[in-house]
Amino acid sequence: MSRLALLAAALLAFAATSAQAHTGVGVAGGFGHGFAHPIGGLDHVLAMIATGLFAARLGGRALVLVLISFIAMIMVGGTMGMAESGLPLVEIGIGLSVVVLGLCAASGYRMPVSVAMVLAGVFALFHGYAHGAEMPESLSGVEYAAGFVLASSLLLAIGSAIGLAPRRLGQAFGAPVPRMIGSGVALAGIAILVGNL
Q1: Whole-angstrom Cα distance, residue 45 to residue 126?
Q2: What pTM was computed for the model?
Q3: Largest Cα–Cα distance of the chain, in whole Å?
Q4: Per-residue pLDDT tens over the stretch 70-102
Q5: Predicted pLDDT at 139
Q6: Hey, how many other C-beta atoms are within 10 angstroms of the C-beta on 41?
Q7: Three-state SS for 40?
Q8: How many whole angstroms separate alpha carbon 174 and alpha carbon 167?
Q9: How many domains is the chain built from?
Q10: At what angle do helices 62-82 and 141-169 cross, to 10 degrees?
Q11: How far is it, in rounded angstroms, from Cα 119 to Cα 11?
Q12: Residue 197's pLDDT band (boundaries 50, 70, 90)?
C-alpha cells in the first residue's frame, strides 16, 4: 500500500476516534457528528472509495476533477438536506451509486472526464443530502458540514491511493487489485440496493 493510503487511513482512524470522544460536546460536537456520518455508513464508505478508485484509474486531470466534482456536489446536497428541500429516492440513489461507481472502478472503462464528473456529482448529491438531512438540529451546520466534507475527502483519498498503487507495484502484481475491489463494492451495492427496495 502506498504511503498516501497509509497516511489517509491513519488520519481517518485518528479523526474518527477523536470525533467519537467529543460527540455532542461544544464546538467539537458539530464537527464530530459530521465527520462520523460518512464513515459510519458502509454505503457511504464504499461509494467514496469507489469514486477515488475510479478517478485514479481514469488518471490525468480526471484524478482531480472527478474528486472536486464529488466534493462540490456533496456540499450542495448537504445544504439541500439541511434545508429539508426534499430530494426523492435518496436511499435508492445511494445504493445505485455504490453499484455504478463500483462497476466503473472495476471495469477501468475510460469514459470522457466530463461524463465521469457528472456521474460522480449526481451520486454525490444523494450522499450529501443524506448527511445534511440527518444533522441534529442542535448542531452548527457549518461545523457539521466541515466534518462530513473532511471525512468524505479522506475516503476519496484512500480510494485514489488504492487506484494509484498498481503503478508503484507494477501492473502484473497490482492491476487485479482495483478490479477486485471495484467488483466487491458493486456486489455490496447490489445487496444495499435490494435492502432499500
Answers
A1: 14
A2: 0.81
A3: 52
A4: 999 999 999 999 998 889 999 999 999 999 999
A5: 77
A6: 17
A7: coil
A8: 8
A9: 1
A10: 160
A11: 28
A12: confident
- Residue 132 confidence (pLDDT) above 70: yes
Question: How does 70-107 read in b/e, with b if 16+ C-beta sit within 10 Å?
Answer: bbbbbbebbebbbeeeebeebeebbbbbbbbbbbbbbb
How far from 181 is each of 52, 70, 85, 134, 135, CA to CA, in Å?
A: 12, 20, 35, 29, 31
Q: What's the domain range around 108? A: 3-19+28-196
CB 17 within 8 A of CB 34: no
- Helix segments in the chain, DSSP class H: 3-22, 26-39, 42-58, 62-82, 90-107, 113-133, 141-169, 171-174, 176-196
Grid cell in block for residue 12 = 481517518
- Cell readout for 183 is 467488483
More confident residue, 179 or 47: 47
